[in-house]
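User: Second chain of the day. Same drill as before.
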Amino acid sequence: MTVTETKLSGVLIIEPQVFADSRGWFMETFSKKKTSQITCDFVQDNHSLSKQKGTLRGIHFQKKPMEQAKLVRCIAGKIMDYAVDLRPDSKTFTQWVAVELSAENKKQLFIPRGFGHAFITLTDDAEVVYKTDNYYSPEHDGAVLWSDPEIGIDWGCNTPMLSDKDMKAPLLKELK
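Assistant: Same format as last time:
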């Protein structure tokens, strides 16, 4: 596995080694030994399907003490995946990184605790799976408005498909 650091401390791009032959391919999607930078223990796996290109999910996070680190990959279709630094005491607060994840490129994005997570689908029928190091807690569920100008993400789409939750999410300054 190749591990690449991003401009945001702790956010990592993971590229598995793929072994292919005439039958198909094989890869390890996670190895604690090969990704020593990831020190958390994963406890839950999640899987989503977004049927339409331009579906936006996020910017989501879990509030303390139920924060979650995530290891995200796209197993069908293609997405642009985002990690947003929501740690108020961080030098990179409100900064974000974006990585294209697809069934074809097999890249993964590790997002540590304290970050928001979002993605927009670049194809129809995009399936995303991710591991978390803490269980989902509805009482600690949080979101920031996808179009928050303080964060300033260019989604490449002015009219994404959104859930009610994401349409009504507060601005970051309203959460402070």
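The longest helix spans residues 164-167.

User: Great, on to the next one.
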